[in-house]
Amino acid sequence: MKKMSIKTDLLIIGAGTAGLPAAIEASAAGSSVVLAEQTDRIGGTLHVSAAQMSGAGSRLQRQRGIDDTPSAHFDDVMRISRGTAQAGLVAKATERGAGTIDWLMDHGFDMAPECPAILYFHEAYGLPRTYWGVDGGRSVLSVLKTLFDRERENGRIDLRLGAEAVELLCGEAGVGGARLVDRATAQEFDVRASATVIATGGYGGNASRFADWHDGLPLYSAALATTSGGGIALGLSVGGRLDHGQHHLPTFAGIVTRVGEPWIDWDLLPLLTPQARPPWEIYVGRDGGRFVQEDIDSVDARERALSALPGQTFFAVFDDRIWRQAPALLPGWPDGQLAAAWTDHGAFFAASTLDGLADAAGIDGGGLDRTVALYNEAVAGGKADPLDRRHLPLPISEPPFRAIMMHGTVLKTAAGLVVDDGLRVLDGDSQPILGLYAAGEAIGGGALSGNAFVGGMSVTPALGFGRWLGQTLGRDLAANNTKVR
Ligand SMILES: Cc1cc2nc3c(=O)[nH]c(=O)nc-3n(C[C@H](O)[C@H](O)[C@H](O)COP(=O)(O)OP(=O)(O)OC[C@H]3O[C@@H](n4cnc5c(N)ncnc54)[C@H](O)[C@@H]3O)c2cc1C
Known about the structure:
Elements: E1 4-13, H1 19-28, E2 33-37, E3 53-54, H2 59-63, H3 70-80, H4 87-106, E4 130-131, H5 137-152, E5 157-161, E6 163-171, E7 174-182, E8 188-198, H6 207-213, H7 230-237, E9 242-243, E10 251-254, E11 282-284, H8 299-307, E12 313-318, H9 320-325, H10 335-344, E13 348-351, H11 354-361, H12 365-380, E14 401-409, E15 416-417, E16 424-426, E17 432-438, H13 445-449, H14 459-479
Parallel strand pairs: 1-2, 1-8, 2-5, 8-17
Antiparallel strand pairs: 3-4, 6-7, 7-8, 9-15, 10-14, 11-12, 12-14, 13-14, 16-17
Helix pairs in contact: 1-5, 1-14, 3-4, 4-14, 11-12
The structure holds flavin-adenine dinucleotide.
């Protein structure tokens, strides 16, 4: 059977956070667009993301009397990332941040009333410039879907759901589209395009790719299982270069839904932010030793200490009185599920002695005994806490003793395709691969956050860069008058 072939101005691979705005803007600029999505729905990671965004100089900030500028935002990103983020891209992202927020609001975005705010889940900005929707990423998706459906009425967007890009088509003029597989029928077809955008997200759903690109590190992830990194691999297959993986930093921290599997439910994260809940527990590694001052203000310091632990795994250790009296450590957990966890969840341990707890959890018993003794002395006021912890509410002394196993968690992945400031994918000699562009997590979370986790610097640039690519490529391709054939 002859293979079907479609011609278009612009092929966008991935109908998620970056791909949708790219398609909306390219169509609005007059270009024809094929938008290929491997799953059966649009939206990508917006279905699960908190989608906290950052932008400086927004209308909302001005209304609240907050004097902020893109250059102050740029300086903050470079401060938090210790200068390791890609400066040209950070400048482009921070210049477009407020415009992205205003654009969402212009189109009915359901902004949470407390925005803009300073948040402490990631290293804090110096000013309130973080925004989020009442329904997280789904609030962003709701705006994009409305605009996308409206734009589709102009007949220039050909949405292909269940269509996975499996190969980039290359010729003398560079990349000229991709081969797609219709997942329902297993039929292959080619999309020939004047320009191709990789907007396929990261690889936080793919444990083997994660291990390959991070020296064998085990994956613990809140990303969608479909976040495979396949689009990044396509870029590499035509000469693209992978970078920023060295900047991986785990988010502090999550509990797997089932021990032995990598998945972490974002809605069930423990509350480990000292600004929101000062810790009542101690955190120990498998050697029984504490590895960080649990109430240190800087989440970056906690994440860095965690990243040095083997397997990025630790235990929150406490006793029964703390469990009964402290504010909820697991506020998202339904009561029944939490009660059952102590008997049927492999990450929850309880025992009548500290040694028994250490045995059950696989922690060094002698190490845990010494650590708890020193901590209890500090709580009693006899000696300073060995890690200078300030919040020392109760000793760990009343059985049953308890521990919950937690892991450094992937929300976004660090490595990605190297691009220049025009979002052109670069080869090993830093030359652009003609016709090939990338946006979103496919360019590597480390490009915009460097070796830190900078709040809002994934969703906001994915939206802003997606829009920018759609506007600029859409305008240029429409001017060349290429039509769908
Ligand atoms: C739980 C969680 C919370 C987060 N919270 C925040 C936050 O508060 N703030 C923030 O800035 N970031 C946050 N992030 C990260 C952020 O949401 C993502 O980095 C961002 O949404 C990724 O956008 P994207 O367009 O690159 O990819 P996606 O939105 O994932 O879209 C990629 C799309 O491409 C499709 N695709 C992949 N490969 C192919 C292929 N070969 N062919 C066709 N289609 C393909 C996928 O199915 C998907 O639909 C969070 C992430 C998670 C998981």
